[in-house]
Amino acid sequence: MHTLLRSVVVIGILAGGGVAHAQNVTGTWQGTLNVGKELRIVITIANAAGGALSGVMYSIDQGGQGLSANSVTLQGTSLRLAIDTIGVTYEGQLSPDGNSIVGTFTQGGKPLPFTLRRATPDNAWPIPSPPKPMAADAPAVFDVATVKPSNRDAPGKAFTMRGRQFATLNTTLSELISFAYRIHAAQITGAPEWVESTRYDITAQPQAEGTPNERQLRAMVQKLLEDRFKLTVTRGTKELPVYVLSVGKGGHKLTPNDRNPNGLPGMFFKGLGMLPALNASMADLANVMQSTVLDRPVVDRTELAGRFDFTLNWTPDDSQFRGMGGRPPAPTNDPNAPPGLFTAIQEQLGLRLESTRAPVEVLVVDRVERPSDN
Length: 374
Known about the structure:
The chain is mainly β. The protein is built from 5 helices and 21 strands. A hairpin with a 5-residue loop joins strand 7 and strand 8. Helix 1 packs antiparallel against helix 3. The longest helix is centred in the middle third of the chain and has 15 residues.
């Protein structure tokens, strides 16, 4: 998926190390986090094997979907939760009576005050059921779709799926085609100039009940492009400069995620060069690299099936993020700065990204029109 540069709070499953000393922090906790709007958060913490702590955190006003994190620790009365894949930490102090935790929730470098209180059967907030998936044989079409020119002064660019609503911000038709067919802009030929310059905002909702998986969502966007832009294409193959993504000699360093194999990935940049990923396949990683970061197609040759959680932090150079209009930071001599992209992928993910030439699919645009009225 494309990036969302705004701060989005995403809450997940916590599982990890840390021995509880002196205080009992197990149980159900809840509190309201103010991020411009109020979000109710529920955390359950339990003892795990080897004296560790494990827990689950839910943002119940965002659907209550659980997502993995890496650590829960308690030292004396100091509790710390870390969710590296989305850049979240929570640090707080357990009260003397053991019924509240006062602390700070931080995501993307933005600290927010956050107090948790121990829940009881009488006041516990109910956790919503996970979203129901769309049936496999459901029609892959949008019931209602709005397409309008973007506000030229509006910042950012995004493809998002929140609940059952699909939305884009400041997206060109070239980017929409790239998303729908999972290809790089270099693989689109025969299109008029406005396809790469005119930007649109889209909101749409599926006709069928439930939340679509990625295959269904892409099929719906393809149908929308056919209906509203009168797009028709011919598929072909051409050898182009590409980057090939493969597994390094030491094996990958990704955390498997098997909780929602048919669900949508969560890949939202927290800044240029800061990519936390949840429930993402290697095809998803290759796609976000080619659609947002790099100047050529990225071919997935990892042969890694399934979905993973990971965080990739690197220092971009001036050849990256050009399609986003972003400006990578100036070169720095800071010894603690993250490495460049190619080194970071190898060191942090155990993968390799190499430049070469290879045959890839291309789409020849046979017909396209500016979108019809809503």
